[in-house]
Amino acid sequence: MTGLVTLGEAMAVVASTEPGPLAPRTAARISFAGAEATVAIGVSRLGHPASWIGTVGSDAAGAMILGGLRAEGVDVGCARQEQGLPTGLMLRERRTADRTLAAYYRRGLAGSRLGPADVDEQLVAGARLLHVTGITPALSASARDAVRHAVRIARAAKVAVSLDVNYRSLLWSREEAAEELRPLVAEADVVFAGTDEASLFSTASTPEGLAGALAALGPSQAVIKLGAQGALAQVDGEVHVQDVVPVTAVDPIGAGDAFVAGYLAAQLSGAAPRERLRTAATCGAFAVAVHGDWEGLPRREELTLLAGDDVRR
Amino acid sequence: MTGLVTLGEAMAVVASTEPGPLAPRTAARISFAGAEATVAIGVSRLGHPASWIGTVGSDAAGAMILGGLRAEGVDVGCARQEQGLPTGLMLRERRTADRTLAAYYRRGLAGSRLGPADVDEQLVAGARLLHVTGITPALSASARDAVRHAVRIARAAKVAVSLDVNYRSLLWSREEAAEELRPLVAEADVVFAGTDEASLFSTASTPEGLAGALAALGPSQAVIKLGAQGALAQVDGEVHVQDVVPVTAVDPIGAGDAFVAGYLAAQLSGAAPRERLRTAATCGAFAVAVHGDWEGLPRREELTLLAGDDVRR
Amino acid sequence: MTGLVTLGEAMAVVASTEPGPLAPRTAARISFAGAEATVAIGVSRLGHPASWIGTVGSDAAGAMILGGLRAEGVDVGCARQEQGLPTGLMLRERRTADRTLAAYYRRGLAGSRLGPADVDEQLVAGARLLHVTGITPALSASARDAVRHAVRIARAAKVAVSLDVNYRSLLWSREEAAEELRPLVAEADVVFAGTDEASLFSTASTPEGLAGALAALGPSQAVIKLGAQGALAQVDGEVHVQDVVPVTAVDPIGAGDAFVAGYLAAQLSGAAPRERLRTAATCGAFAVAVHGDWEGLPRREELTLLAGDDVRR
Amino acid sequence: MTGLVTLGEAMAVVASTEPGPLAPRTAARISFAGAEATVAIGVSRLGHPASWIGTVGSDAAGAMILGGLRAEGVDVGCARQEQGLPTGLMLRERRTADRTLAAYYRRGLAGSRLGPADVDEQLVAGARLLHVTGITPALSASARDAVRHAVRIARAAKVAVSLDVNYRSLLWSREEAAEELRPLVAEADVVFAGTDEASLFSTASTPEGLAGALAALGPSQAVIKLGAQGALAQVDGEVHVQDVVPVTAVDPIGAGDAFVAGYLAAQLSGAAPRERLRTAATCGAFAVAVHGDWEGLPRREELTLLAGDDVRR
Amino acid sequence: MTGLVTLGEAMAVVASTEPGPLAPRTAARISFAGAEATVAIGVSRLGHPASWIGTVGSDAAGAMILGGLRAEGVDVGCARQEQGLPTGLMLRERRTADRTLAAYYRRGLAGSRLGPADVDEQLVAGARLLHVTGITPALSASARDAVRHAVRIARAAKVAVSLDVNYRSLLWSREEAAEELRPLVAEADVVFAGTDEASLFSTASTPEGLAGALAALGPSQAVIKLGAQGALAQVDGEVHVQDVVPVTAVDPIGAGDAFVAGYLAAQLSGAAPRERLRTAATCGAFAVAVHGDWEGLPRREELTLLAGDDVRR
Amino acid sequence: MTGLVTLGEAMAVVASTEPGPLAPRTAARISFAGAEATVAIGVSRLGHPASWIGTVGSDAAGAMILGGLRAEGVDVGCARQEQGLPTGLMLRERRTADRTLAAYYRRGLAGSRLGPADVDEQLVAGARLLHVTGITPALSASARDAVRHAVRIARAAKVAVSLDVNYRSLLWSREEAAEELRPLVAEADVVFAGTDEASLFSTASTPEGLAGALAALGPSQAVIKLGAQGALAQVDGEVHVQDVVPVTAVDPIGAGDAFVAGYLAAQLSGAAPRERLRTAATCGAFAVAVHGDWEGLPRREELTLLAGDDVRR
Fold first, then answer.
1. Which residue blocks in D16-59 are alpha helix, DSSP H?
2. Quick one: pLDDT at residue D313?
3. Helix, strand or coil for residue A309?
4. Hey, which chains touch D, using 3+ CB pairs under 8 Å?
5. pTM of the entire structure?
6. Of A19, A100, A168, which is closest to C250 when you measure between CB atoms?
7. Residue A222: φ, ψ to 5°
8. What ipTM does this complex have?
9. How is A181-224 classified by DSSP, letter by letter?
10. Which fold has domain D2-299?
11. For site-directed labelling of C277, which of A117, C33, C256, E199 has its Cα 20 to 30 A away?
């Protein structure tokens, strides 16, 4: 029995390493990214079995992604290499020291081939948590059906469902997103959203109001991610706030997914809401202290590392 | 009046710098590529005005391509940044020290939007040479029409036409290519092809036979590129052979386009066939002695550099 | 008709990339720099035609500089490669994370050969702005004459003149600089100076006093650059202050020239003084957020980038 | 049921990337190595399940090794992180372009803690092949016992046994090695040795003689690795010779282990001796065409890559 | 006559350059480190002759260390290359932007062979200062005897003795350390300690109390290093406090040793206590503004560099 | 008493690391070079005391050079940092994988200030060998006088004199060089020259003839360096030939100076002519197998490294 199952798209990432506009000879690093993959890696590093379902190309990028997930202990037994379509790719220009611009190569590529048949019923039904995001339903009709199918299985098997709203304006309009995601929110046990994302479903103007509005749709846990202001959660009707964990940041990308990973891992460990939020914030801090989406995520024994000073022994 | 006009697609290139399979943290360099762009740069470096026509995205990659061409003195006054579509991209895995595998992100992207309206009649009619390749007609219907349109203008204005067959099996079948390109060969004054490409139009089994067969279709100059075996040309009925110029090679990519650039630049300088081939081979040697498609191409005063020893002064 | 014409020296820059004293194996990056070249690039990126006049060597560094300016869309039709003299060079030791020490190789080299004959009368008379700095007159007698000649042409043709005082203590004494530059200030429409530079011409002790004193010499716009304190300008008798735009800084070099570029580009766009200063400060912020003198300068559509958060779409 | 099981030590590798003596600021890459780990990775990449047994430290290097093996699909379910002892490490000075000098940090460290209890009887008995090397028995008494135990299990379960002699002069004398390894040779079905290693057991002076002498001790397959001269094998009494596969080499390290991986993977695929040797030589070529011990090893679909030219499609 | 003599262990350092967990392909830099070597380099850069005594291996790392010290002008005439044992090594994982984890390879290696016979009586007796740390006595019995021997010589020759407590929990317990180091404190003229280290000898709870307690054991100068809070010293009964010098920090490692180097160099220059502390704090700032333990240390003429702005001349 | 004394110029070297024309962002390495410095380093690494006399700037480059020489054990007690003039610099464009173009910044800079007063009489008279090159007399009148002075001291003290002709066409004409260097040849005991350089003094057309002609001018040992063809020496009337030592070459620069270092070190060791040439050729091979002028030179115990295979122990 696995701890967490998630499904979604993972893409190759090409990120320039020095700040500045792209120009011939620009140095870059290749890695991979995907909101759900980051959550699976984070949960696995914190000690809970995690499975990732998705479709990648049968190319070098696809092999890199599956190998990368395996390296992190994430089960990819239900992931698939699609023949004939390249793996999606994101080209990140590090425009200034702290501003990144991305171009996406994903439409109609391997990741969009995810479908209900990829969702192994036994795997989902046997998990303790199913995690989905609002990105996957926007990729293709089959991907949307895969998410719906997975949630249905989970609900039937009494597996807890987690949803990160993750609205992407390049993929669909706010209206489309709201229509598709509202039922998902309603079926989720825990939902994560930024204030802008929570506003898809509510006109509340404060984090607390937004959390309440989300919870009113169904979830017993509604977590509002507030970026540099930390986070606020309403859990079983009670409100908790969480500051960010201070750290020297080098790359803001991936903090939100790391936060979710920490929260869900702590939940799998049976931690109380306050501890879930603290672990979430710690994971967010690790993510921004290392380049890349998931590379910085902590292992369980590292969770205390940011607390102390940097000392020699 | 410009020397050479060419039109086609230019793409961003992400190439891993160390040999080996892609993996997270793989170092890469970003640059750009395109068979016609390489020819334009090569001709410009050798001292002849050159213009490139094409469509790129209005993104970081597109800006890099136009800036890169301008840096090389190539006129991009008729190139265009297309709104809303990303610039094409090629991901190159340097699998071993001398074997590279590429994944293409180009279908339906900005480069395929090239069309007849992009072909400035005055620019083409005022040039001394129009250079086209067999890649462009395979990109899209509008791109195919752009090539046809450009050739028509050139023929009408008595501008010499050059064609590099450049068959790409990922874009179309040999049958489709042969059907589309045969009329282009017939209208060209000079045609370049590898043996495999020349076989699209002939069943001859020797380089000399293939050159003769191509010339029989119309061109007064038919040049067969033989890779490590050099080249063979039939010019005005006479056959010339050319060895490769020996050099320490670091990257085989771009040699063929460099060869074409050298040949055409020498032709623009009024050189005799033997000299055209020698300049072509020298440019090919420069291309493989430097990483990247076009980065190594020689300036006129550098053409003699490979002949001598490396000495201090 | 071009927007801005400027003339001066551009040099190769070798900058160590890791903090610390130079030692064998120190990694470095090669680029180029020059106060006027930076202004030309900045104005061009913001959408106004710009021309740069100067002399570089006919060597690799000279070719790099001309290619680099062309890449940025800067017209170098009146720039010249001087035979037999190397292009100037600056060796920058990044001594600590935020302290850089430079050694200059410029005396008697190609850049000092700039002379009145290089100043194309038609080009200057047809521009909307002529920009000069206090560096060029200190390079050589002929360079000084070139600046005087350019200003004379501009004044005669009613082209606005901009002067950045840019005092360099390695090139001449404060007395020499004051004597040569005072008449230039008097002929300028807009003058830029740091407080230390403004003190060449005034004993005023406040930014406001210094701006007033400069304006009293002739210019209708006097702008005092205050580094981390922003800037203060007296424009047509009215005083404006501007804060710096906050940003993660990685390299303080080039901020002053970027500021000038932004100010002049906004002026060419017809912006009011307050908007000129805001654009200037934004350009300064971009410059320090990227390594190199000019590499970070913004394109027009990027001016708003620093305002928002770094978000995914 | 797994295809191949192997056991041994894996160490962190720190290798300087530029040729030359170590000096402050020398750039290096960190990876890992181990003869048996390389064989396991090679077999896994060629499509057969492989398991690696060994002990690493519970430190960053140990985590890197286990993650790296998992990424390659190698089962590490029976590998163990030892508390309190660091993972072994090898510091490689790339002294010239093709000469590497190594310093070893392994004595008494985590890898030497491997013992009989680590050898899962079910895992070994259920495999098709057990692969051991002459390095492991030299690490410690417990490691020697682990090898003996594994071979005993394999023999009892009729699992084929493969032995790579791999004599390491820093660990023991030729006399000690010969005494310990002779019984292992006798129990092996396939044995690999260089000429110098085969001379531990025979006074024959030719590769053919040495192969015959090894086979006379018991193994039905005796393979002599001849470096740049290829290899010679006596299989079921018949002699086969194999040339090296030509390739641009960048790093000679790891070729021997890659050869073994290719041979054994082909054997698992049921290939005839000639095909085993050809696959072995191809894997050796891949290994030297990429930096690192195992990084360059081919996947099954890549085996033909070195045969053709480097072409575009 | 030399200024400062010190003795101890120096090790190779392999430090990953990008934040994140170690993984195959992680980039690293190789250098060396050692608390006493850092002090010797710092004192030498500030203009005082310095000698370092220690044992390294006769391997690439040992040659790097001796060459590196010689490059800095440190006399290594009494240092020794030990045959047959590798030089110690430290593997640093830069886990996040500002947290580093280290694995040590030092037990029983070359550095532990330091013994009384290595301590040249004439060298120590002829120096103005002997500097020792609490690390060396913990390395081995012979190293402990070497320290005791050196202190005895110094005391007899009326050479001032400096001790940096430098407690390392990986090498010995607090009880062992306190027992061995207490007599050393008593014999020292100047002693440096962090608050945690000073607590080995006192139960005082404030920096001032700790300084007083240390001084009560014998030293006329007791300096408490307070990290980001600066330092506090009791010198001849008078208390002085010192803030840190603000700087952009990139690597916290080495700050404490740099502080000691600055303090002792100023003392050798005859500076008053307040100036010693100021120089110490400046050296600490330089150390954290450059990667590596000693690479950033200032030369005398650079001491003022951090005070001013970064300006062009 | 030192083994070898030499005097000359050492310059900073900035060398691009990737093949291709210089362009903004080109990566480079900083080091230093100088024919005489390379010889001094080579002799020191092979175990003989060596001293270098020269003038560098009091800047970062000058400090790097003196530190670099000290690191190699070269005595720089008589070298001097000149105030107010920068250290010379060489900018190397690695144009292709094996062709390098250099721009020099040396005229009138610190190195040209070398003068007779820098030549310590006691140091030269107490050495076993004085080595000079034909570069130094071309730098300035004072440098020429310094060479003459040093040779005069050596002759008077019966110290053997070595001359490497080292003609540099950028510094003077063949006629000037021949006139100045002929007397130096006459006073030398051993002279080194390429065929082109030997032709300054003779019309002989074969290496053997040139060696004989040089010897006829005075030296008992005349060595003709033949690049890829090895070398030929006439020693005491007997002719010896030497092949190159085969090696994977990465950088041809520095081979000639390395050859001289090896020859002279072997002479200092009392080796016979044949052994001197063999050591010389081995040093030349090491030089080209590592990037940089001197970085690759062997230590005594490494001389045999190139003979064997690259094997593991």
1. 35-45
2. 47
3. coil
4. A, B, C, E, F
5. 0.96
6. A19
7. -125, 120
8. 0.94
9. HHHHHHH-SEEEEEHHHHTTT----SHHHHHHHHHHTS-SEEEE
10. UDP-N-acetylmuramoyl-L-alanine:D-glutamate ligase (3.40.1190)
11. C33
